[in-house]
Structures are given as structure tokens and as C-alpha cells.
Amino acid sequence: MSNKRIEVKKLFLLAVLLLAPAIFITSCGSLKPDTPYDTCAESAIASRASFFYKGRMFRNINCGIGYTLLSDGSEHSICADPFCQHSDKSCPAWCGDGSSCQIFVNEVDGEFCVWFTVVDVKYDPPPIERKFGIYLYNMSTGKLTEMVSGIDEVIGNFIVLDGHIYYGTSLLHSTGDGSSFANGASRIWSVPKDGGEPVLIYEGLDSETWDGEHDSFELLSSGGGYLYFTNMKAVTAEKAVFRAIPDFSEITQLTEFGTMIFPKVCDGSVYFLREVENVPVTYTREGGNVTFNLTYPVYDIVSASLKTGQTKVIIENVDSMLNTSGVCVENGKIYYCVFSPKYMRTYDYKSYGMTGAADDDTSALRTFDLVVSNDGSVYEYDIATGNTRTALTDSGYNIYNIYGVSDGKILLHGFITDDSRLADIIASLNDPNMSLGNSDYCEYVCRDLEG
Asked: What is the rounded distance in angstroms from the CA atom of residue 77 to the CA atom of residue 60?
């Protein structure tokens, strides 16, 4: 696919961008063969659904690429046009209808740019048609570049290395009722970022059924002239780490297949969560009239050397609520929460049913149970020394995710555990136009680290 330069014509661009992150088109991810194994250089790390960079956590916000600012938790679009609504494909930050984008961010020579995947969906005329691509937006100039486009297969994550884009795709299979599904990235492609046709360089086992055995590749990183990726076997959900030279003519398996959740690469190792047990926990609803017998998966944090494949358990008994960000590794330290089930709190609220009318016969008094599985504290493990300390005491949240650390601050995502704030949220639901959802009691929050 040729690189089609799209000039974003806008009335006004902000002269000073207080945003950041990026990749300059002419120099992204260029690594020489003698480069040491990955040293956390962002140009060597593959794209992710959320990408933390220089105090900003980039992600898909309402089908457009935006970021949460570490300093105050505020949300922004990468689009610099103050008159843009950021709501459709006229916005350069648009990433597609219902798309879970893959994002890669870097800064080279003062140019701030963001790479991201896009899905373009056409509903009319039927059948539904989806096309996938990879775009590059330069936040300094406001220019959008179409790097890869018109792809029929679902694009997974990608890496930019030595003038090429490497990306995984999965075939779309029809279910017979007009819908479709993709098993996971079972093919890896390469395309010159200065233009050219994609070349299939590696192909795994695919399946025409959702639950059939197939390979699912995830690109992790590049370094030392190699690409690193995982392969997951669908039936067992076990993964192993592999190393390949860029044309994939030489592939080495580095680790045994096993449980590997949310792998991340840093300082020559891959860090991941490994489930070790399901812990039974009994909660009694306030008032003592209802008891819940729940089970929680508990994890270890494990590292595997990209050079030798040797694995070791670093931290035990990690809370399962780290459910989308995985292991947070920053500046040689790992930040995590300890599994510590505390309590269940119960709140009642009025549901106004399907129509929103107070007399709707589907209206009811409903109960919201808040289960707290960690104490809201964050712990810091120093990889070099093996020392552990409390980095944050009781954030006031049941922490779901730890996204990143920068300049003495940490960006968290979790649900509110403060009684007075929750009471206010529940009280606001006595409005026919309101309904309770995760967004009502979950939020991004920034906290200062202790010490």
C-alpha cells in the first residue's frame, strides 16, 4: 500500500503543544544489530492498547486517540484543533467505529507523533465491510500519514524497525448470520514505511471456528537486531516467547509454553502475570441477609530473560485486579498491588427500567454491591536490589490498573471506595435518565509517590 500523505486542513492549530509523545517518520525505531537487548527505549517496544509515555497514558477515548495526563488526571485528544469535535473521521485522531486501537508513541528530533491502528466500517449497503490500517499523526505539524490501509484482515499490534512496519493480522471468519470473528493474530507481515506492498513473512495455524486450535501472535519488542513475540495456543491459552531475525527465516523459542498474562518488555526481560491459584473469599452483604462465595485468581509476577529464556518468580500474591494494564515496569522498578480482600458494601438505588418512566413496570429498587479486593496501596519492587517498599498508602481506590510512573507521580485506574462520594453517586441515580455503570464509580487518578 502506498503512503498517501494527508494534509490535515484546519482553521487553527495551537502554537504551543503542552501534549507530547511521538515518532518521526524518517527515523522511527531504527536499531543497529549491535544494539543491546531492549533497554526500555520506546522505539523498541511494540504497540499496545494503552501506551504510557512521558507522563501521558494514550488510549482509545470514544473512538479517537487521546491521553490522560499524569499530572492531574485530565483527558485530552491528540488532535490540536480547538474547533474539532473529535467525533468522526474528519478528526485526525479518529481510529474507527468501536475499534480497540493499538498505539505506539515516541519523540525523535523534537517531533511528537502517534502511530495507531484504524478500522473503517461501512454498514450500507450490506454486508458490513471492514478495512484496517495503520496511521501516523504528527502532533507538532498536524499532519496525518496513511502508512498501511485497505487491509481485509484484523490488524493486531505492530513494531517499527529499520524502515519497516511489522504487524500481526488475523483472518475474519463469517459465522453464517452476517457477523464475523477473528481468532487472534496468526500471520505476521512486513511493509516498508516509505511505501510498498505488505509481504507475508510468517504464518501460524489458523482455525475457522472460534474455539478451534490456532496460533495467536503478539509482537513484544525489538533489540539486538531481533524481533521478540509470543505465540499463544488457543486451546490451552499457554504462551511462549520467541526471537526472530526481521525476515523470520531464523526463529528461536526462548521460554517454555505456560501461563503468561499481559507480557511487557523492559531491560532485556519480559515481565508477565502468571495465575497460581483461585482463592475462595466469602462476603456477607451488609445486614447479614445474603452471603456471596466468590473466587479470585491470584498471580505471581514472573520475569523471563530475552537472552537466555530463564524464568523466575519475582513477586507473589499479586491482586487479580491488574486486569488490563498488566505489570507496570518503570525505571528499573515494578509497581503492583497485593491481593487483600477487605469487605463488601451494599447500596440501593432506583432503576427506572427500559423507558425511563417512574411507573415503568420494569423499574425496581436495585442493589449495588461493591467488593473491595485490595487496600488501595501500591508497592515498589527494585529489580536490581530486590528491595520492596510501600510507594503509596491507601489511594482511596480499589485499584484496577497501574498505568505508569513519572516525576514522582503514579497514574492509577480504580473504583471509588470513599463512602460519602459513593453515596452521592448513588443518590444521583434517582434520576430517570441515569443508570449505574462502571464509569459512574471508576476513574483515573494521579497520586504523589511517597518517599
From this structure: 10
Q: Can you give the residue range of the structural domain that contains 6?
A: 1-258
Interacting residues of 383 by C-beta distance below 8 A, sequence separation 6+: 267, 303, 314, 329, 332, 333, 334
Task: With CA atoms as reference, report the closest residue to 147 among 122, 172, 117, 184.
Answer: 117
C-alpha cell at 196: 510498498
Number of other residues whose CB lies within 10 A of the CB of residue 425: 17
CB atoms under 10 Å from CB of 111, counted, come to: 17
pTM (2 decimals)? 0.75
> Please, are residues 170 and 187 in contact by the beta-carbon 8 Å criterion?
yes
CA 327/CA 333 separation, integer angstroms: 10
pLDDT in tens, 286-345: 666 667 777 777 888 999 888 888 889 998 878 755 555 667 888 889 998 887 776 666
Looking at the domain assignment, is residue 263 inside a domain? no
| Dist. CA 243–CA 245, nearest whole Å | 7
Q: From CA 179, how far away is CA 15, in angstroms rounded?
A: 45
pLDDT digits (tens, 9 = 90+) for 26-81: 222 222 223 323 333 334 677 877 888 888 888 888 888 888 888 777 888 998 88
pLDDT tens digits along 374-398: 788 899 999 999 999 999 998 888 8
Question: For the residues of 4-63, what is the DSSP string, one character each?
Answer: EEE----S---SS--------TTTTT---TTPPS--S-GGGBPPBSSEEETTEEEEEETT
Per the structure, the count of domains in the chain is: 1
Chain-centroid distance, C-alpha 52: 9
Tell me the three cell numbers of residue 63.
Answer: 473512538
Is residue 353 a part of any domain in this protein? no
71 in a structural domain: yes
Residue 418 lies in a domain: no
